[in-house]
Amino acid sequence: MMILNDFRRSMPQTMATSQAEPPVPARRGIFGAVLTLAVLGTLGGCGLFGSKPAHEPTPLTEIKQALTVKQAWTASVGKAGAYSFAPVAVGDAVFAAGANGSIVRVDAATGATTWSAKADTSITAGPGSDGETTVVATHKGDVIAFDHDGKQAWKANAGSEVLTAPLVGRGLVVVRAINNRVTAFDAGTGSVRWSYSQPVSTLTLRTGTGMTFVGDRAVVTGFPGGKLVALDANTGNPLWITPLSYPKGVTEVERVNDVTGSPVVFGRQICGASFQGRVGCVDAQTGNGLWARDFSSPNGVSQDERVVAAVNTDGAVYAFSAADGSTLWQNDKLKYRDLSAPLALGRVVVVGDKQGYLHFLSRDNGDFLARVKLSGAISAQPVLAGQTLVVQTRDGNIYGFRPE
């Protein structure tokens, strides 16, 4: 049975605190200050990148390296082009892809490429993998699956362009198209198991909104209008729909309120963020709202047992209490540097920028602990594979680091 939750009604009364809300920069852009919008149906091949920034990136100041970050290895795959490709970690394996259709499986411990494959066309999203099936997708909605040896297993179609990496697992390949349709294919055969769709918004951010599994029961993703939706993994029926945030303003541009990035599960809590909306967390089982704060994020959140980390559209990095949403700290020394989504990792929060710098901030207070320069802009969220921090740059380089 579908449950439609009103996030405001379900929020604890303690949320009405005297603490000031973090500022919500108005109508700022994904990569720079210009809001990148697309009217569905006339999207063309343009991505989020290349808009002229209204602000120069904040210059970096010298820091004291309080953390040793050792580069363990480097590998390569195709360039990102106009799209965004993030590595995927499955145990000690890393899967990465580039716009030219190149896909690699890399051993996270050594950096050795254990297999490589090439789609028969350029791709716009991926990879998604569970270690056995690895999947990419294209501008025309083609979904291409490779087996555990990197050989093409099957090909299907999701009905529209795909910008979100497929979600693979539980015997499913779940694909989200830009027209707000989510389709689950059988991981073995490519046959359609179920589909779910929401109405298409007139204006939306041209960006991939991720998906995540919650146990064996549900697939959770976000939609325009600030909604988080949990879909039954077996049938595709909605289990709950929760407004993470609500559209505000008068004009259509002001009311753009898409959920960004991937919802993140930790324990019984799912956290996410929206553009020109909120950052907040809900109960994973019921969808009931736990806490929310006014916030505008271009790329989602990361969380652990203590913090929910997010970057706002100006490039300020925030850490909120995972328990109640109170602001623990903010670091505004990376503004206008077009930051990636952050990764909360042990005692650090890691974030990359468009000039190729990887920044390590203290999880406790937001101070800089280390900085590393890579070759190429970093737009994808770093991932942890085994004991290795893995970062992919837009020029197709993949780096493995081991902070000490």
TrEMBL record:
Domain of life: Bacteria
Gene3D superfamilies: YVTN repeat-like/Quinoprotein amine dehydrogenase
Signal peptide start and end residues: none
SUPFAM superfamilies with a match to the protein in the record: Quinoprotein alcohol dehydrogenase-like (SSF50998)
Keyword Lipoprotein belongs to the record: yes
Keywords noted in UniProt: Cell outer membrane, Lipoprotein, Membrane, Signal
Pfam families the UniProt entry points to: PQQ_2
Domain Pyrrolo-quinoline quinone repeat: 100-331
Family note: Belongs to the BamB family.
HAMAP family, per the entry: OM_assembly_BamB
Protein name: Outer membrane protein assembly factor BamB
